[in-house]
Amino acid sequence: MNSAEIxxxxxxxxxxxxxxxxxxxxxxxxxxxxxxxxxxxxxRKASYCFEPYLMEHDxxxxxxxxxxxxxxxxxxxxxxxxxxVSETISKIVSKGKFPITxxxxxxxxxPIVSSVKKSFSDLNVVILDAHLxxxxxxxxIEHSHATVSxxxxxxxxxxxxxxGGVRSVSMESAEKGKPIFFTSEQxxxxxxxxxxxxxxxxxxxxxxxxxxxxxxxxxxxxxxxEPFGLSSVDMKELVSRSSPYLVGMDIVETNPKYDxxxxxxxxxxRMIYELIGSREKKKG
Length: 284
Ligand SMILES: [Mn+2]
Prior knowledge:
Elements: E1 19-24, H1 39-46, E2 53-54, E3 59-60, E4 66-71, H2 78-94, E5 98-103, H3 109-119, E6 124-128, H4 148-156, E7 161-166, H5 171-175, E8 180-183, H6 184-189, H7 193-200, E9 205-210, H8 232-242, E10 246-252, H9 263-280
Parallel strand pairs: 1-4, 1-5, 5-10, 6-7, 6-9, 7-8, 9-10
Antiparallel strand pairs: 2-3
Helix pairs in contact: 1-9, 2-3, 3-4, 8-9
The structure holds manganese (II) ion.
């Protein structure tokens, strides 16, 4: 990768870095609109849009050691993806570094969670997603974007995940055995939704963000746009408030094919700035 292709300013060595970013441009199971494989590239491009200094947190990303390992790509099948992703994430997490993964479709998240759990055995997961995605099998596929919260619940336990921002649930998942979830309306109504979430589950937290949790007005470039979602400001608050409790994050389902003016890539990119800035802000 040349320097123009890395996420902005993420040019420290792997060994020095406290945050390590990678892309997984995988979109083999997308059912409605394909194209999330271009997500990591566009999110990196958008990352050059912002000032490294974050005024709200009084810190500059230039003061922090950040590394971009590039993309993991070219998988023949899901098994190969799982192996490569697990190897990279385990290397990052076992060295005490914070992994940030850019998708790609949401099916990349379960292998990440599984690898993070090797270092944090009591791991809890917050998924922000318009869709509950709790089907067991979707279109004959076990590791699909539509089965993500089910697969993650099998890794960390059903009681250790919360899905936030939901406004679409399949009829079979609506019946029983589903994870705790908050609708986007509940999240918007709550003064401090992260406090509400932490009342139900403990730290450490892994955060998985499907960009379709955001309203299509603020994030049109997704595979399955769903109206009545969160605003970009709601999203920022969620990331900022949860950041001290996090041990890893992914941000998936940005689909540049439908992303006029790179609105969604821009927001995804800015969320990464927000994550790091709010975690690292000057104390006191
Ligand atoms: Mn979704």
